[in-house]
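PT: before anyone asks, these are the final sequences, not the draft ones from last week. 222 residues across everything. Please model them as a single complex and drop the result in this thread when it's through.
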Amino acid sequence: MCGRFTIILPPEVLAEIFGLPELPRIEARYNIAPTQEVVVIRQNAEGLRQLVTMKWGLIPSWAKDPHIGNKLINARCESVHEKPAFRQAICTRRCVIPASGFYDWTHTDKKIPFYVSMADGSPMAFAGIWDSWKAPDGSRLESFTILTTNANSLIAPIHDRMPVILHPAEFDLWLDRDITEPEKLTRLYQPYPSDLLRAWPVSSLVNSPRNETPACIEQTVS
DNA sequence: CCAGACGTTGTT
DNA sequence: GTCTGG
DNA sequence: CCAGACGTTGTT
DNA sequence: GTCTGG
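LR: through. Structure below.
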C-alpha cells in the first residue's frame, strides 16, 4: 500500500512532466506521513493544471468529525467507485500526487522498510482523489487519498498492495473533469510494471515521521 | 420511519 | 489492545 | 504507514 | 449526501 512517500524534485522537472503553467515552489520531503500537508495536481474547469496543497487523509464532505480522514489515507481501486466515502470524488475530483518514491514495510520475518522509486529516477505519479470539507466556522479543508491496487512482482515479496502509479500519457485522462464513466478509468488501475521500478531496503530511521533526512532513502547494506 | 455507518491495513 | 497524531 | 499514548483533579 | 439495518 502506500503510507509514506517522498518528493525530491526540482521545480523545473515537476513543471515539465506535469504540464504546470508556472514553476512551483516546492521543497524536498524525505518522509511524508498521513495527516501532513502535501502538494497535489488537479485541473480546473478550463483544463488548466494547478498545484495545490492538501491534507493527506480524505475527509468526505459529509463528515461530522474530520478525524475520519486519518483512516482514509488509501482507497482500494476495486471498490473506490462504490464506497460512499469515495464514489463522488472518483467521478469528479481526481488528482495526481507527484512523488519520487514510496516506502513499504515487510511483515514477514522482521519489519523492514523498503524504498521504491522509478528505475530511471524519473518522477512518480500516484492516482488520487480529493474532497472539500466545510468546518463549523465555515472554512474549507481540502484533503486527498491515494488509490491502491495489487502489488506487482517486484513489490509482492514486500507487500500485497501498492499505489496506483500513472504513466505520463495517462495524466490527461485522469485529470479530465468531463470524464466520469468508471469504465474509462478502471483500466488505469493496473499494477505499474515491475521492470520500470526499483526497490531497496532502508534504515528503520524512516519509521518515525520525525525523521525527514536524505538518510531515509539510503540503501542499507548487510 | 429514524439511526448509524460511511475505510484500509494486517493478523488471527 | 486500540486509538490518535504525524 | 509507524510511534506513542492510553487519566482525572485542581492549581498556576 | 446516501445507503443499510432495525
